[in-house]
Every structure is written in C-alpha cells, then in structure tokens.
C-alpha cells in the first residue's frame, strides 16, 4: 500500500486521515467518493447493496452476482 494514497485509518485508538502524504487527525465524520460513510469512532456505514466478506473485504452485491 502506498502511504501517499489518501485514506483514513485507526491509529492508536484515534481516527486519522492521510491527505497528500500528510497524516492528520480526522476532524469529522467523512463521506467517501463512493458514498461510504466513515465515522469518527471508526464505524463504517455500508451503502445499499454493499457487502463485507467474513475476512473484512468490502464488495458490491452486483459484483458477487457476476461470479455466480
């Protein structure tokens, strides 16, 4: 994983964000470009037809139907 990529993460019990290669505390709940909401406490709100596999990978139900 390229640490210069913009992302959010839990670090030492606090939500942080990496923006333009700089790490800073997350200051508010965020909505990602795909509509996924990430809360200050680390909770993630799934969107309609999103799914999470038992190993923690996010996917779309549409993608799963293609494999069946």
Number of strands: 8
Question: What number of domains?
Answer: 1
Overall structural class, as computed from helix and strand content, comes to mainly beta
Largest sheet: 3 strands, antiparallel
Which spans of ≥5 residues are poorly predicted at pLDDT below 50?
none
Element-level helix/strand string: EEEEEEEEH
Describe the protein's architecture and organization:
Helix content is 10%, strand content 40%. The chain is mainly beta and 68 residues long. The protein has one domain. The strands form three sheets. Strands 1-2-3 form a three-stranded antiparallel sheet, with no helix packed on it.
Give the tags.
68 residues, mainly beta, three-stranded antiparallel beta sheet, 1 helix
Short description:
The protein has 68 residues and is mainly beta.
Note the topology.
Elements: E1 7-11, E2 14-19, E3 22-25, E4 30-31, E5 37-38, E6 44-45, E7 50-52, E8 58-60, H1 61-67
Antiparallel strand pairs: 1-2, 2-3, 4-5, 5-6, 7-8
């Amino acid at each position: 994983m390229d640490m210069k990529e913009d992302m959010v993460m839990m670090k030492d019990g606090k939500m942080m964000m990496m923006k333009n290669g700089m790490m800073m505390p997350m200051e508010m709940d965020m909505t990602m470009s795909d509509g996924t909401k990430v809360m200050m406490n680390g909770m993630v709100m799934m969107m309609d037809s999103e799914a999470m596999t038992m190993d923690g990978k996010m996917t779309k139900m549409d993608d799963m139907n293609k494999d069946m």
